[in-house]
Amino acid sequence: MILSKRGSKLVGEPQPLVQAHFKCAKDPFHPVDNEDGYINLGTAENHLMFDVLGGKLNQLQGIEEHHTHYDVLYGSESFRNALASFMSRKLNVSIEADKLAIASGSSAIIDMLVSVLCDAEDGIIIPSPYYPGFDHDLKVRSSVEPVPAYLDVKDEFKLTKDVLQEAVINASKRDIKVKALIITSPNNPLGRVYTREELEMCIAFCKEHKLELIADELYACSVFDGSEFVSLLELASKSGLQIHHVYGFAKDFTLSGFKVGCLYSTREEVLEAVRELTYFSPVSTHTQHVLSELLNDETFVDSFISTNQQRLNNAWSRTKQALDNADIPYVEPSAGFFVWIDLSKYLKKKSFDSEMDLYNKLVDDAKVNISPGKVFHCEVPGWFRVCYARPEGYIELAINRILDSIKK
After folding, report:
1. 223: which of 5, 215, 374, 407 is 20 to 30 A away, CA to CA?
2. What is the pLDDT of residues 151-177, one digit of tens each?
């Protein structure tokens, strides 16, 4: 055996969502150049804002010699200062630049964070359905177990103490020691913002069970319907609870290709440990320079965020109309790029195997990629995530293709 036990775990078939993403990327739909191409509504990227952002980024390319050399591996001082100022304004809490650590994407941040918080086979509770990348982030290198806290579809996926308590009980039955709770708000894939009461309940729950609290707020500035967004950072600071906050530039700034994530932690020993690990995944000095200049232009940033929220709202309005016309049920979103839709009436059987059969049929026959609920650890088969931050006309065509395929 050439590979180590660690290496052997990494070898095998790529995840279905990864395979579908790259299949779509090789033959993408275009309304003029490739009408028969794949429409990818399975990847949570925002395709609505480059006309606003592209010109600005091209203005910020001024490179000086020091941008070509090494800098602090957990984030340059200028970038951390600019980011701290931005986060303080948007999250309604005072952020200290010295408590930030920067790395190449939020997945890298989560990977490092769970590595220093948990031992192998410890568990972290995550309200389900949840972003499937957490499975990879927790398990691949740190061997930490995600512990789903199953939100009840009959209760409109409401987050309650009973749901979290049930997860603790289930973990105990599996001899898993729970070390932390991850809360994603706005939520992926539900597209909803947790209320102040729900978040305060989570804080009280962590205090009661002596759990670390991890706040994933990647979509904090992508709330588009006027709903109140309350940051867990603000609530935790008022309650005295220690917190580890994850943010990045892939979602609110539509810069998934830049691969920039950050950790804000109120535990100094956690920061020290994570800073050591950023040695293996730093962000380029040039990228940090560009983002520093971007963040320092507060007028542009505020206008960009406002325009993005407007366009997301318009994109959802078009999507809502198309879903209503197609008689497809959904959970009404208020943030993010996606809607959680219910295709259970089109399953041949009420099973996850049937759900995957439908998923594969839509990819292969309709040439539309949407994400099946199974990979989000949804408890009930038939739910799918649809990412709608696409140009006008894409969603309507995709839903027509889906209906045509289902009726065959």
Report:
1. 374
2. 999 998 999 999 999 999 999 999 999
Q: By the 8 A CB rule, do 130 and 103 touch? A: no
- In order of 2, 23, 251, the CA distances from 345 in angstroms are 48, 27, 32
Using alpha carbons, select from 204, 185, 206, 187 the residue that is nearest to residue 129. Answer: 187
3-state SS assignment for residue 36: coil
The CATH number of whichever domain residue 403 belongs to comes to 3.90.1150.10
Specify if 170 maps to a domain: yes
- Give the Cα separation of 362 and 369 in Å (integer): 7
Structure-token match 């304004």, residue found: 89
- Look at residues 251, 269, 300 and tell me which one is the last residue of a structural domain: 300
237 belongs to a structural domain:
yes
Q: What's the rounded Cα separation, in Å, for the pair 282 and 11?
A: 25
Amino acid (one-letter) located at 335: A
Stated as kind and residue range, the H or E segment containing 126 is: strand 123-128
Residue whose C-alpha is closest to residue 215's, from 227, 206, 225: 206
Q: How far apart are CA 364 and CA 353, in angstroms?
A: 16
Which one, of 140, 111, 73, lies nearest residue 214 by Cα? Answer: 111
Q: What is the mean pLDDT of residues 43-50?
A: 96
Angle at alpha carbon of residue 133, lines to 131 and 138, rounded to 5°: 115
Please provide residue 124's backbone torsions phi and psi, each rounded to the nearest 5 degrees. Answer: -130, 125
Q: Is the pLDDT of residue 271 over 70?
A: yes
The answer as to whether 58 is a domain residue is no
How far apart are alpha carbons 381 and 375 in whole angstroms? 11
Residue with tokens 């395929």: 405
Q: Write b or e for each residue in 105-118: b if 16 or more Cβ atoms lie within 10 A of its Cβ, otherwise e.
A: bbbbbbbbbbbbbb
- What integer is the mean pLDDT of 82-91? 97
Residue type, 127: P
- 381 belongs to a structural domain: yes
pTM listed for this prediction: 0.95
Q: Are residues 145 and 47 in the same domain?
A: no
User: What six digits make up the tokens of 102?
Assistant: 């920067």
User: Residue 10's CB: how many other CB atoms inside 10 A?
Assistant: 10
Q: ω into residue 132 within 30 of 0, thus cis?
A: no
pLDDT over 70 (residue 334):
yes
Q: Which of 300, 333, 354 is where one domain is finished?
A: 300
